[in-house]
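Readers outside the structure-tokenisation community will struggle with the description of the input data as it stands. I therefore recommend that a typical entry be quoted early in the introduction. An entry of this sort, consisting of the sequence and the corresponding backbone structure tokens, reads as follows:
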Amino acid sequence: MIIQHVIKGLSNLTDQDIDNIFQMGIICNWWRTQGRLPQNEVADRLTEQNLEWHQNSFTRPDPSQGNAPFYQNTPFISTTAGTVERDTVNRTNMLTPAWKSALYFATDRWTTDGWLFYCHLFLIGKRAVSMEAFSEELRELNIYTSFSPFYLEGEITAKLVIPTAQIERADFWDLSAAKAAVSAGSLPAPSKTLSNSYYVKPEKYNNLRKLLA
């Protein structure tokens, strides 16, 4: 098993929203829409097709959910750990750092202020879509071999909830600072950080893997 550091970008949150997340975790849109987790339906929702839709057909009407856009009831949670693109023509690799992808979503595509949540997730190095506890490393081409136009997002997909014990902190970024960081190609200190007192450090466990940054 691998313990993977990831970042989750979210926008339009207050300090109270952050506190609620620290107490409850980051929950999927399906749980949020229902107001509770329909546990008896979980097995039917954690499927290969739904994972593929989460990655590549996020806004597609979902016939199993009254043709609502898939994202409104997705049981999955997107995070990023960064990724590398190989340019075979120029014989080089190009890094897309985790913070850059996360800021894109935290600022709602460079339109508003946002938050970066620093978390860790559990991977097992193979597909385990039906297993709630393990996340899916969609960026790993040896596991997910099909083409995706969103590969460079460096996605690690959590399921149902990222528990509070796995959320270290939330960093606030105003839009201008986020754009400046991307232009500079490096991430300075955020203007505000809120730490989660319920976080459990994973350093004492084996196979801890850092972000690509």
User: Anything to note?
Assistant: Residues 2-60+70-209 form a domain with the Heat-Labile Enterotoxin; Chain A fold (CATH 3.90.210). The longest helix spans residues 15-24. DSSP finds six helices and 14 strands in the chain.
